[in-house]
Structures are given as structure tokens and as C-alpha cells.
Amino acid sequence: MLIIKNLHAGIEDKKILKGINLQVNAGEVHAIMGPNGSGKSSLASVLAGRESYKVTEGEVWLDGKDLLVMSPEDRAREGLFMAFQYPVEIPGVSNINFLKTALSELRKYRNQPELSAKEFLNLTKEKQQLVEFEAKLANRSLNEGFSGGEKKRNEIFQLAMLDPKLALLDETDSGLDIDALRVVAGGINKLRSENNAFVLITHYQRLLEYIVPDHVHVLYDGRIVRSGNKDLALELEEKGYDWLKREYQFSE
Ligand code: ADP
Ligand code: MG
Ligand code: MG
């Protein structure tokens, strides 16, 4: 589904990603962990097509299509969903209207008929229940005045509504209390299927107690320095990141 080959990217003259290789298949959940400043959010930004980042080398394929030549909008239309570490607030645009527009665009792109008002409402209700999202939040302006936990729940609700192929969630767990974490993780678990894939970027192992990843990767200094299964996350929780830093510097 997603293939990243030798991806190098940076901002202005600063090299941030220094040769990322990653393959994510349909049905899989991958966790990307790593110390602060290792490039996790940058990787998400590059995949989303954020303009400030310049790709200097490498390839990214989404379902056989060259992602790097696509506009951010086309990436979304192709089924990429991003939840950023700091979700934007859009005053004056209600959540529901945002989703209505986004979904209608997506369906057009996929040659699916437009949903009637009733169908849209039913879908909204179904997905709200699925991710335990409070109906009153849906009608408020997008993320405006939302607490950290509400923003993250909202992301999972958007995710449920848009049904992407590949969802990339950047530190969805940060700042969540344990109840919100359970709801968010529960939502993701319910949305997991053989047809989609998730990449969870997280600094801590905590989220992975609720969502069991198929693969865990450690990003350090713009490279994936280690990959493993869920036990790698436990090992990191126990030992921290310093041993990997030492090992990595040693081998350099
Ligand atoms: P992480 O998400 O793993 O904490 P980031 O991707 O946010 O890491 O940051 C990786 C590196 O890129 C850091 O050294 C950070 O200082 C740098 N960086 C991030 N954004 C910018 C920017 N806008 N301009 C310059 N450097 C940046
Ligand atoms: Mg950070
Ligand atoms: Mg980050």
C-alpha cells in the first residue's frame, strides 16, 4: 500500500530525513517511535505534501501511484489521511460542513454517487457511535475551542467518516487522559480492516497497550535505526532511547 524508498527531505538547508525505507501493507498497523526531534512529524509532513519540506532524494508510492508528484489534495483523494500533532482550528466552518464537503469531494473522485442528506446524517450517527464522539461537538466550528482530547476524538471521527486507505496519526496519544486514550484507541481498533492501514507516530509506548501494532520502527536522526514487533516498543519503554542513540553513534 505504501512504499517509501530512500527518502531524503529537509527544510531549506537543513537535512531532516536521511534515507527512510518503509513498506506498509494493507491490513497492517505500524508504529513509528523515536526521541523528540528525530523527524517523526517531518515524515508525516512530507507524506502529506507540506510545502516547506523539500524532498531531495527517494520515492514514495501509494497503491502504485507516485505520491510525491501529487498535490496535498490529491493525496487525500487517493486515500491518505493525516492527523497532525497540532490540529488546526478553523473558526466559522462547522465540523459537519467540513466533513460534508470533504466526503462529497471524495465520492466524486471515486465515482460514487453523492449521499442524500438523510444518508449523510445516518452515516454521521453511525460513525459518531462507533468512535464515541459526542454529537454536540460535530456541529461546532472545526476544532475551535476544543480541548486536546476533543480534537483527537474529532480526528478519529473524521477518520471514520472519510474511510481512508492509509491513515497516519502523529502523536494522537499526546496530552490524552486515559479515558480519551481508550476511546481513541478503541475507535482505531474498530476502524482497522484488511483494506486499510495505519501508521501511528508516537513517542510513548502507552498507546500501543491499546492498539497492538504489527511492526514497530524507531526513527532516530532522520533514519529508521531499528524495526521489530510490539516487543520493541516494550523494550524502548523499559530502556528509553539512549541505548539506541549510543549504538547508532557508535556505528556511524
Ligand atoms: P519529531 O516529530 O520526531 O519530534 P520533527 O520532525 O518535529 O521531529 O523535527 C525533526 C527535526 O527537524 C528537528 O531537528 C527540528 O528542529 C527540525 N525542524 C522541524 N521543523 C522545522 C522548521 N520549520 N525549520 C527548521 N527545522 C525544523
Ligand atoms: Mg516532537
Ligand atoms: Mg513530532
TrEMBL record:
Keywords per UniProt: ATP-binding, Nucleotide-binding
PROSITE patterns membership: ABC_TRANSPORTER_2
Gene Ontology terms for molecular function: ATP binding
Signal peptide interval: none
CDD domains according to UniProt: ABC_FeS_Assembly
Ranges for domain ABC transporter: 2-246
Domain of life: Bacteria
Family: Belongs to the ABC transporter superfamily. Ycf16 family.
Protein name, as recorded: Fe-S cluster assembly ATP-binding protein
